[in-house]
Amino acid sequence: MTPFGEKVRGLRAERGLTLKRMAKDLQLSPAYLSALEHGRRGRPSLVLVNQICQYFHIIWDEAEDLERLARFSHPKITVDTSGLSAEATELANLLAERIADLDEATIQRLLDEVKRAGV
How far apart (Å, rounded) are the C-alpha atoms in residues 67 and 7? Predict the structure, then answer.
């Protein structure tokens, strides 16, 4: 699941909407919306993010947060470490290789550390 997908799924649940109903209202296929929520599709377009904001009547900070979540919700990323240190390349490779084995507490700790670093 992606951060964006998790948020959209939560918004749907809060409002008691089925995936099928929301997909129909947004003129999307239920399969596409499900794949988007579960991280089996690439990051959503800004147009779709805005459409979802309008659908849920989301404005200001909450809309900006949803846009930010969409930016960080590409399930298949590439990290270019050319020109960076050997340690940066090692870190990127180790993370790619081992992320599936990390528990949620470790993932949260690493995420917090990267956010604190201002990245």
Answer: 11
